[in-house]
Amino acid sequence: MNQEERDRLHGLQQARDKIITQKKAAERMQVTPRWVRTLLKRFKREGDGVVVHGLRGRSSNRKIPAKTQRQAMRIVQREYADFGPTLAQEYLTEKHDIGVSKETLRKWMIAAGLWKAHRAKLERVHGWRPRRDCCGELVQWDTREHDWLEGRGPKLYLIAMIDDATSRAYARFALHDSAAENLRTLWGYLERYGRPQEFYTHKASLFVTSPKKKDAEERTERPPTQIGRALRPLGSGWIPAPSPQAKGRVERFLGTAQNRLLRGMRKAAVKSLEQANQYLEQQYLPMWNRRFVEPPAKPAEAHRPVCKHHDLAAILCSIEERGVANDYTFRVDGQLYQIDVQQVVPAWRKARVAVQFRLDGSVKVAFQGRLLEAKLCQPDDPPVPPQAPEPRLDAHRLRQRRVPKRGSDWNRNFPLQDAPSLGKVLAAEKKVGRL
Fold first, then answer.
1. Cα–Cα distance between 392 and 347 in angstroms, integer?
2. For an engineered disulfide with 270, which of 103, 265, 357, 396 has Cβ 3.0 to 4.6 Å away?
3. Exposed/middle/buried for 63, CB within 10 Å: 0-12, 13-18, 19+?
């Protein structure tokens, strides 16, 4: 009998002995006066146990049979003794057709000495951050690796973007979590909604260059990644998230997708990347944007349109620098490319050009923002002869004494062999007093 039941018993005894009224006892026990009269009648027959619930000590009608418990524990002790309760429960369900929850199995394993209960740790509490006011002010961006097709097809990655103010989502499946696939997702978002003010992502190497070990103080500025470089001409900023909890909106979207989207594709028998993106575009995203989107605090639209001068094919690509040889060629992945001879300028020799590896597989080359024509060199193509450099006037060489050519006859009429030596001339001058 617990303390609450003792207090109820004390109230019944006082009502029985006429110390307090039945109405007062009902107020103390928080029941009706009618129930107090019923308890007083039973109190005469059953005694003090009348305040104890009648189901106490009885087994639940939904209790798992003892036979099933003994069978499950025998299997766990024989095959899964070093497994945790969650993993053991999965194996019992899949391989032995024993349906039991992981918490029930955890209690059984603790009682059998196969598992030790651990004290729950206090997790770090993250402060709540309000939503942005306008749609397009901040877009959270993340990728989730998961067995989305559950073994029915290739391994897929879900790349998702969600607006912070409204929870409006855009996503697509990809075979790799690479810069090219993320740029394709960004392209689709820009064409549908426009250019947001800022993106909010984790600190992965796709978005920020890792610092050098020898430059701990980061005295030199880190070069941008391909995605970071692409955001600059778009006018969109980038904010790194200090933790996964900081970008909780996109994390919750991906967590919900692992539950709803995964089971929906299972029902639709999705088996390929194309079918997965089709189901995502036609079924799941419309459902999400219809049921879970919130109205923004302010109706103003922060997205900006993609203008004509925003060449998305040239912006959303991978750009690398290459050196131009004397014959106006450059190498890309072991292949030789030749710049169009009609556009050749002597200043391009030994220059650095930007090679654009576009998402459609084409390769373009640009120099100082100007797009150049280049083609892949074939083995039979004759090389372009390098142009002879123009003569340069060197001031130092002009100041040097001009040396006559050997065999010149400018001193033919001067009999230098018959002239006295310099010593004799000096002696003669000294004798006459001139020196």
1. 15
2. 265
3. exposed
Burial classification of residue 224, based on how many CB atoms lie within 10 Å of its CB (0-12 exposed, 13-18 middle, 19 or more buried) = middle
C-alpha 257/C-alpha 249 separation (Å) is 12
Residue 93, token pair as written in the block: 């369900």
If one counts every other C-beta atom within 10 angstroms of the C-beta of residue 73, the result is 16
Burial of 302 (0-12, 13-18, 19+ CB in 10 A): buried
The span from the first CA to the last CA of the chain, in angstroms, equals: 142
CB 95 within 8 A of CB 62: no
Cβ contact 80:60 at 8 Å: no
For residue 403, the one-letter residue type is: V
**Are 37 and 26 within 8 A, CB to CB?**
no
User: Position of tokens 């230098």?
Assistant: 416
From CA 113, how far away is CA 71, in angstroms rounded? 16
Nearest-CA neighbor of 250 among 195, 169, 179? Answer: 169
Calculate the CA dihedral of residues 23, 28, 31, 34 and round it to 10 degrees.
-20
Q: Are strands 352-357 and 335-339 parallel, antiparallel or unpaired?
A: unpaired
Question: d(Cα 114, Cα 108) in Å, to the nearest integer?
Answer: 9
| C-alpha distances in Å from residue 247, one per residue of 54, 297, 367 | 51, 19, 39
CA distance 362 to 316: 13
* pLDDT single digits (tens) 133-153: 999 999 999 999 999 998 999
pLDDT of 393-428, one tens digit each? Answer: 555 554 555 555 555 666 666 666 666 777 787 888
Q: Which two tokens stand for residue 355?
A: 């090679």
Note the pTM of the prediction, 2 decimals: 0.59
Q: Are 174 and 181 in contact (CB under 8 A)?
A: yes
Strands 237-240 and 198-201: parallel
Distance CA(157)–CA(175), nearest Å, equals: 6
